[in-house]
Specification:
Elements lengths: L1 E3 L3 E4 L2 E10 L2 E10 L4 E7 L8 H12 L2 E7 L3 H6 L6 H16 L9 E6 L1 H10 L8 E5 L17 E6 L3 H13 L4 E6 L8 H19 L6
Parallel strand pairs: 5-6, 5-7, 7-8, 8-9, 9-10
Antiparallel strand pairs: 1-3, 2-3, 3-4, 4-6
Helix pairs in contact: 1-6, 3-4
């Protein structure tokens, strides 16, 4: 079961709709932003209960919208879970919820044939790779920023969706892990190294990271026949 509140006109040719999606025994919340019609749909897999309000995520989503892509900013944890979470994230839990939410979105008439991509940061990026390893994964392209991939390492060979890995040049531990991930992935993959320790932590590198992600996803999600 899931529901979407009444869509409202956000600006000419673009709609915004709050979403509540009941999956895996919990209710997840998110925000849909979409041009009409979208060339593709990007799910921002957010590993907290308030990630959809983060200014970097909202600005990145708007940039994707301006390029013709619809976006869903989806919080993969409830507020109660966020308060109680431990330092070690449950990547399998996040992955299962991302896959379930994707299946729900696919059942909506406006997304029935729209190519879907996943955009994740940190633990949620690892969860996206975990979910993409499933044989029935419904994802056309992935962007994984500062991905925490340790728990998904054994599944990387099974990922088939083209994947852009992004990491900060000064975050050597994450960067080294992403280099290993690049070698293990069984799909077309590119490692993009951004200038600071956290690609989305400041306006300059956040702008650069969003632009690189947009280029990757736009190329792979644009619907056939679109200009």
């Amino acid at each position: 079961m899931a529901s979407a509140s009444m869509a409202v006109l956000d600006s000419p040719g673009r709609v915004r709709s709050p979403l509540t999606i009941d999956v895996c025994g919990v209710t997840l919340t998110g925000d849909l932003f979409a041009p009409l019609p979208p060339d593709g749909l990007v799910i921002f897999a957010l590993g907290s209960s308030g990630g959809r309000y983060d200014a970097h995520n909202v600005l990145a989503a708007r940039r994707f919208n301006d390029a013709g892509l619809g976006t869903v900013l989806l919080d993969l944890l409830t507020p109660a879970e966020d308060l109680a979470r431990t330092p070690a994230p449950d990547i399998a839990l996040l992955a299962n919820r991302l896959a379930a939410a994707t299946r729900w979105l696919r059942r909506q008439h406006w997304a029935a044939s729209t190519p879907i991509g996943w955009y994740g940061v940190g633990a949620a990026a690892g969860a996206a790779l975990w979910a993409a390893a499933e044989p029935d994964a419904d994802v056309a392209a992935i962007v994984a920023v500062d991905s925490q991939v340790a728990l998904a390492a054994d599944r990387l060979r099974a990922v088939r969706a083209p994947t852009l890995l992004m990491a900060g040049v000064a975050n050597t531990e994450v960067l080294d892990a992403n280099r290993v991930t690049q070698r293990r992935l069984g799909c077309p993959v590119l490692l993009d190294i951004i200038g600071s320790i956290r690609p989305l932590a400041d306006a300059g590198d956040g702008h650069l990271a969003a632009g690189e992600a947009l280029r990757w996803l736009s190329h792979r999600l644009s619907s056939p026949g679109r200009p």
